[in-house]
Amino acid sequence: MKAAPVYRALRELDPSVELRLLHTGQHYDASMSAVFLEELELPAADELLGVGSGTHAEQTARALVAVERALATQSPDVVVVSGDVNSTLAAALAAVKLELRVAHIESGLRSYDVSMPEEHNRRLTDHLSSVLFVHSASAADNLSREGIAPGCVHLVGNTMIDSLFAHLERARAARPWERFGLEPGAYGLVTLHRPALVDDGELLAAATERLVRLADDFPLVFPVHPRTLGRLDALGLRRRLDASGVAVVGPLGYHDFVGLEAEALFVLTDSGGVQEETSALGVRCFTLRDVTERPVTVERGTNTILGLHPDRIADIPALLRQERTAEPVPLWDGAAGRRAAEVLLRELA
Q: Catalytic pick from 104, 135, 154, 193?
């Protein structure tokens, strides 16, 4: 979702530039990989490295070795990486070891929570990069405080919102809520996957119990990450959700998820990207985390931080009665990919 708008804009602005798409395979399940590439209208990857799952160290190490081999044979002028997953850091490190320039989409995000693996990935990747694309002024301020030269930092906006706006009409036209017998604006959408919650049996059990109670007030759809589903099954919690009427489903395609998200009354999540999408859509978002690396979604968007406290899920009905209107976030306008591509073309020149 972050890379596709930049890829397309580069192709449109200068077809002579050779683009190669490298897929590490960190996300390898078809429901969380192939379907997104297809629906985002990206071409098939030029190379699929098959990194797969494992511990953070195993996954990062395999991606580092595989990406280095790929880059050594290609010698690109710029290596563009996105986000803050293990593959992001591995690809950036492989590139700089080969003395290749790195451009980082979604630079400058900081939670200042060192227990989050993504926090280490994003910090290290930013300091390995020579072109840093930020989506908000606060992200640029974070980089400035860390001593990164202002000339390397480019405020282009949020490329993920480009993808959201580009596919929103098609996502709504699919009417995915009807599959669950729901009415637009009358249900809650739930996504939970972070280890801080999912790997803590007591917290996950408490969150499950609160979802069961919340389902008395609102129909809930819960597309479950494979990791989360494994934990729910292991703890015997899936049966509790099913019995309460919570619609527990497997991972959804991009269009189905965006369609559900756009027409939800609210979203309960621990995802970073969902905080941004709901703010752009004007949908109320409740984040089950202690901190967010996207403070603009709280300051100007629709996001409310509940903390890593499942009991606070009980506050959602009362919070929904408190009116909150999102303000447009500067440069979250659907043209961030083009602005980033223009910077990349200047770098290539």
A: 193
